[in-house]
Design goal:
By secondary structure, the chain is an alpha+beta fold. It has helices at residues 36-48, 70-79, 87-96; strands at residues 2-11, 26-31, 50-54, 60-68. Helices cover 31% and strands 28% of the residues. A hairpin with a 5-residue loop joins strand 3 (50-54) and strand 4. The chain is flat.
């Protein structure tokens, strides 16, 4: 099963209200396995489909998550401009089911 993560910046605090990456697609597609166990683990994340993270300075990042076919995987990988160094958000979603970071700590 292939899962696509797409990054956007729906809220920002820039002087002109725009993100320098606006107009480009930032997508990472990963294969999470085809087993029933993998599908069960990922289904709740795919069903939720949208995660956000507020940096605390007016900027907010969002990551959309969805299952994609092999054909779409190839297309997305071809057009993607990377993930702008925010791969840690993907890892947080994968392993914690939420985006955690300096402004949103995991409960102890």
């Amino acid at each position: 099963m292939n899962v696509a993560f797409e990054l956007s910046m729906p809220s920002n605090n820039s002087w002109n209200g725009k993100w320098s990456g606006e107009g480009r697609r930032y997508v990472r597609v990963i294969n999470v396995g085809a087993s029933k166990k993998a599908r069960t683990k990922w289904q709740s994340i795919i069903d939720r489909g949208y995660f956000s993270y507020a940096f605390g300075d007016g900027w907010c990042a969002a990551v959309s998550v969805r299952e994609v076919s092999g054909t779409e995987t190839r297309k997305l990988r071809k057009i993607s401009a990377g993930f702008c160094g925010y791969d840690w958000m993907i890892d947080s979603i994968r392993f914690d089911g939420e985006i955690y970071g300096p402004n949103r700590k995991k409960a102890a």
